[in-house]
Amino acid sequence: MHLNSVLFSALAAATVISAEPCANTDQTDNSASCGHPPVSAPEPRLSVPECPKRGIATFNRSVPEKKPFPETKVELCYDAKTLMLHIGFTAYEEEHFHFDPNQGTNGDIWEYSVMEAFIHRGKEDPQTYLEFEVNPNNVTYQAFIYNPSRVRAEGAPFDHAFISNPIADGILSNTTLDREENYWRSDVQIPLALFNTPEKNIRGSHWKMNFFRTITSPETFPEQALGAWSVPDKASFHITKFFRDVIFV
């Protein structure tokens, strides 16, 4: 997952299958029960419009088991005038809102409950990308990750460069908690200039992204429950082949 942690919807159109009905009318999955191989779920993709419209990614599967996980929503849009990416994270079914109140900017907030976006401009599985996190206390973590193996391979180079003054650089977040309704939400803006995005090329630009959520509680800490939009096959958020296509439209 994160740099030191050892514990680490889909918006694509659904595939339509034509098949003869099964003899056993109790079967609900014709593609599997009539002798056809089961159809795998499509990879998640996301179209991000210009604000105020929003592209929405939701997920409710754990990492890596793909078991039920609390519902999580990520809304994105871009502002071509201010050159900002806007992200709205909403964490539902939250019971503990667990964070360390002594942690500050770029602290190890990933040890507790956070929501995250991993962002890269380009079409290829990235070796460098932005890792952004926010916790229920509105504390943020932002760093560019250097991961040339694309999987954080043991013995391979792996490093980070913090954005040490995010507010001055234009990274802002506003977080609200609703303990009665069991959710928290963070509205975030991230400058597109961080990704060397020319103004005239914002619309139509291709990106690779993934979104994650970790959940802890005072009783279970430091163990975490992990969820993802595109679920990696290991408890690691730094396997970049699982970053999915995002297109600004």
TrEMBL record:
SUPFAM superfamilies recorded: CBD9-like
Signal sequence annotation: 1-19
Keywords: Signal
Protein's UniProt keywords contain Coiled coil: no
UniProt cross-references to CDD domains, sorted A to Z: CBM9_like_3
Chain spans, region Disordered: 25-47
Gene3D superfamilies hit by this protein: 2.60.40.1190
UniProt name for this protein: Carbohydrate-binding domain-containing protein
Native species: Helicocarpus griseus UAMH5409
